[in-house]
Specification:
Elements lengths: L3 H10 L8 E15 L2 E12 L3 E11 L11 E8 L6 E8 L11 E14 L6 E15 L2 E13 L10 E11 L3 E9 L5 E9 L7 E3 L8 E3 L1 E6 L4 E6 L7 E9 L3 E9 L4 E6 L7 E7 L4 E9 L5 E9 L4 E9 L4 E5 H4 L7 E7 L6 E9 L4 E4 L2 E2 L1
Antiparallel strand pairs: 1-2, 1-8, 2-3, 3-4, 4-5, 5-6, 6-7, 7-8, 9-16, 10-15, 10-17, 11-14, 11-16, 12-13, 17-18, 19-24, 19-27, 20-23, 20-25, 21-22, 21-24, 25-26
């Protein structure tokens, strides 16, 4: 059917969704059709580049109810989906081409103008609306039921959930996480800023290698296993991310938060068999030293978690003092780039047994680290202690 070239052009215009304000779309692809009574149904597939969004795959379907030997006697109407590579980002809408379009012959090129209405979408296009009153396309009939096309146009789309990403920068460290082996980690992200923000979490294991974690989302996003999670958070919203690995395998490490907006958060780790849990604050900035108290007197135990934010090795010099200021031990702990370590104080420093005191961790020159203490009782209750800084 020679009219497929015109149909494909029109379908392409339906994909011209964009950020708030003016936008442009360039498309190319091919169509196929099936005869249905005195008309036909059709499918268009191709690629498009949408300014401000990047490249996407588009799929259009529609129907023509009445075709004669010279022109299309009915309107051409259908729906479209523009599918972006970012998870869940799909723009949807409808299109209409007026009746009366002439039918090109095999090998000939035809032109068409369509009106497109954006009706919504998913991901950053949730709640999208808008229209494209004029989208010009051209194409060539390649067979009785096939055609190729290309086109471009402009229009307006209102996308209230869309965020044009700025420069994502380091926003903070979660110095300890545990997933599996009976442990569950819950990360809570809060966008306290006035606008949407691109947000990324990178997970690292004890050696500093990327740490794939099973992630689930009680607010409805699809589960995934990944060492990097990226999303867009809306202003004033809360996002909850959970990770609980298999009981047979314990994964520990740290997480780094990156954002281009006012995103902050914290982490909760829970020992599932007992239901006991404690929180880990997001540590921002860089201090010259971090001071953590410990208590190894009867019935109490203190654990320490250290994490290296930097992409270079971190030799961390430390001094263990008792509660009267006497030096019990000195040491240097070397962490790999983005590395992590957790230990019980008396397992590493025997002179701290039955004592209280502090451990001072010196930030390496040009480096960046984070630390947190975990205080536990013999009965299994525990809490976290954030560091003081020098």
């Amino acid at each position: 059917m020679r009219i497929l070239s015109t149909v494909s052009f029109v379908l392409a215009c339906g994909l011209a969704g964009q950020a708030q304000g003016a936008t442009t779309l360039s498309v190319s692809g091919s169509t196929s059709a099936t005869v249905v009574g005195s008309g036909f149904s059709f499918t268009l597939q191709g690629t498009g580049t949408l300014s401000g969004f990047g490249s996407a795959v588009f799929v259009n379907t529609g129907a023509v109810t009445n075709v004669n030997s010279l022109n299309i006697a009915s309107t051409i109407a259908g729906t479209f989906s523009l599918i972006f590579p970012t998870q869940g980002d799909v723009l949807s809408g409808s299109f209409v081409v007026p009746a009366g379009m002439l039918i090109p012959s095999l090998g000939q090129t035809a032109n068409a103008t369509a009106t497109v209405t954006v009706t919504g979408g998913t991901g950053r296009f949730a709640g999208a609306s808008g229209s494209f009153p004029s989208f010009m396309v051209s194409g060539t009939v390649t067979g009785a039921h096939t055609a190729t096309f290309q086109g471009s146009g402009s229009g307006t789309v209102n996308t209230p959930t869309y965020h044009v990403a700025g420069t994502i920068t380091y926003s903070g460290l979660l110095a300890h996480l545990a997933s599996g082996g009976g442990w569950k980690t819950t990360i809570v992200l809060l966008n306290n800023g006035p606008s949407s923000a691109q947000t990324r979490l990178n997970f690292f294991d004890d050696h500093g290698a990327p740490l794939p974690l099973p992630l689930s989302f009680p607010q409805g996003m699809p589960a995934a296993v990944t060492n990097t999670f990226t999303t867009t958070t809306l202003p004033g919203t809360e996002l909850i991310i959970e990770s609980q690995g298999p009981d047979a395998t314990l994964s520990t490490g740290s997480a780094q938060l990156f954002s281009d907006g006012g995103v902050t958060g914290f982490l909760i780790f829970r020992y599932v068999p007992s239901g006991q849990e404690a929180s880990v604050p997001l540590q921002t900035g860089t201090a010259g030293a971090y001071v953590l108290p410990f208590d190894e007197t009867t019935g109490l135990t203190t654990g320490i978690a250290l994490a290296n934010v930097a992409a270079t090795t971190a030799p961390i010099a430390l001094v263990v003092h008792d509660d009267k200021g006497a030096i019990l031990s000195t040491d240097t702990i070397t962490l790999n780039p983005q590395g992590h370590m957790s230990f019980v104080v008396t397992d590493r420093y025997a002179r701290a047994l039955q004592k209280r005191g502090t451990i001072v961790f010196q930030t390496p020159a040009g480096g960046q680290i984070g630390a947190i203490a975990i205080r536990a009782t013999a009965a299994g209750a525990y809490t976290t202690i954030p560091p003081s800084t020098e």
